[in-house]
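Progress report, Aim 2. The chain analyzed during this reporting quarter is listed below.
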Amino acid sequence: MISTNSSANCVPAAARKSDGPHVTEDEVHMSHALALAARGLGRTWPNPAVGCVIVKQGRIVGRGWTQPGGRPHAERMALAQAAAQAEGATAFVTLEPCAHHGRTSPCAEALVAARLSRVVTAQTDPDPRVSGRGHAILRAAGLAVTEGVLESRARALQAGFLKRITEGLPFVTLKLATTLDGRIATATGESRWITGPLARRAVHQMRLIHDAVLTTSATALADDPDLTARDIGASHQPLRILADSNLRVPATSRLGQTAALHPVWVLHGAKAKPKGWDQNAARLITAPTHGAHLDLPATFRLLAAEGLTRILIEAGGQFAAALIRAKLVDELALFQAGCLIGGDGIPVLGPLGLTALADAPRPRLIDATALGPDTLTRWSF
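Predicted structure tokens for the chain:
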């Protein structure tokens, strides 16, 4: 069955509260913490988006989530709210509390100092600076520790952070909008608008839960997008990235003209000439190239090294196919409109170089949502 909730797929499944039977009290409070953590998606990089709920005698006395820029951490926010009531309480945290000294002392030590009696976590932090050390600090101080509560949901929510730490790559969502017959534009290139207002609103919501939105020079030259989240009361904007190996897009584009309002990074080859981009607020980044194009695996590793954990791709079929061929796509968000263009239209994907059906990528369907006359299906690679 297709859901008719127009926003259901714009928040990761990890953030949705389970309504199933036999839910334990620990799961109820962890579900609450996961919902809080989701509020930080797209705003906390390079830090993870964490949620924390502090409960005492069945009553919530403190709650918090990681703040924009990654500080303060969720535990600090919840402890500040709980104040003296934290003593003897239980903290529910979506990720193992940090154990290393940075700009602040470790959150594990702060939980100990607050004299909590128990800490419940969803998952261990794979960051080598933590990786079990936070749990060890808590246990050494005599706190009871329960691990792995709603772990699969927490891992789905933290997929970007986890992938950056363990693989050195960001979590990549590929967004495509197509007709029923798999076309993204007419033969003349006309594509506005294939999908309707509800679908476009869902795209804007998706932008907000990603650290960055990336497009290519081909799409920028054709559509001149600004890639911001509009008409949904957004309190922040994602980083915007232009992949333009030869700097073909003029600095007078909408991305160039709005770089001072909302950050823009421009990825280019070493031999490209700035052509005015060095005169505005955009950040020019020399990226690895392979021939005339960006070396995609190396470029995405560079972006992860810059701290990005979740990137939404809004580009054309050639770039989409290149990402799939390079096995860089983690999730496909496919918006499909109830219209037909025909075989003379532009296909949704460029060549994948397949010679056998057995080699075709077969992503797994996550869910489907009706958006007025359109549908959104999400697929996991």
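Residues 1-20 have pLDDT under 50 and may be disordered. Residues 4 and 103 are 45 Å apart (CA to CA). These observations will guide the mutagenesis work planned for the next reporting period.
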